[in-house]
Specification:
20% of the residues lie in helices and 30% in strands. The chain has 3 helices and 7 strands, in the order αββαββββαβ. It has a 5-stranded mixed β-sheet. Strand 3 and strand 4 form a beta hairpin.
Length: 152
C-alpha cells in the first residue's frame, strides 16, 4: 500500500472505516465527523500533498442503509497519485455532511451540485442553493433512485 495511505491510516486509525484498491486507485471510506480533518491532513501533509479536488459525487445507494454518500476525488500533482474519499451520511431522511469548502474552494460548486441532484446538505457551506434544476423540481432531487419518473 502507498506510504501516503499508510500515513493517513496511522493518523486517523478510528476514522478510516474501509479502504480498497481497484484498478490502481485507492478509496478510503471515512467517518463524517473527521472528514474535514482528514481532508486538511491529506492536503497539507508534505507526504500526501493532495492539493487538487477534481470532483465530488453524490451517490444514492438505495435500498441499502446508509443510503447516501459523497465521494471526493483528489489528486496530488507532486506525487502523481489519485485518491477517493467516501463519507456516508448518518441519516437517510436528512442526509448531511460537513462542507470541505474551507479546505478546497472548488468544493463550493461541487457541493452545490450534489445538494441539487442528490439532496445531500453540506453543513457550513457558504451558499448552499440549487444550481441546475428548474424551480418546478423543488422538493425533488433528480439523481435519487426514487425520483418520480412520471411524465418523462
Amino acid at each position: 500500500m502507498d506510504t501516503a495511505i499508510e500515513k493517513v491510516k496511522a493518523q486517523f486509525p478510528d476514522d478510516i472505516v474501509d479502504s480498497y484498491e481497484f484498478r490502481g486507485d485507492t478509496t478510503l471510506t471515512v467517518t463524517p465527523a473527521k472528514l474535514v480533518d482528514i481532508c486538511l491532513f491529506l492536503r497539507d501533509d508534505p507526504d500526501t500533498s493532495f492539493r487538487y479536488l477534481s470532483s465530488i459525487s453524490g451517490v444514492d445507494y438505495l435500498p441499502t442503509s446508509p443510503r447516501y454518500a459523497a465521494v471526493y476525488h483528489l489528486y496530488s500533482h507532486q506525487y502523481k497519485k489519485r485518491l477517493a474519499l467516501k463519507a456516508f451520511c448518518a441519516n437517510d431522511e436528512l442526509p448531511a455532511l460537513p462542507t470541505v469548502v474551507p479546505v478546497w474552494s472548488t468544493a463550493d460548486w461541487h457541493e452545490r451540485e450534489a445538494f441539487d441532484l442528490v439532496g445531500i446538505k453540506f453543513i457550513g457551506h457558504p451558499d448552499l442553493r440549487r444550481i441546475l434544476t428548474p424551480p418546478e423540481c423543488e422538493g425533488y432531487h433528480p439523481l435519487r433512485k426514487d425520483y418520480p419518473q412520471e411524465g418523462f
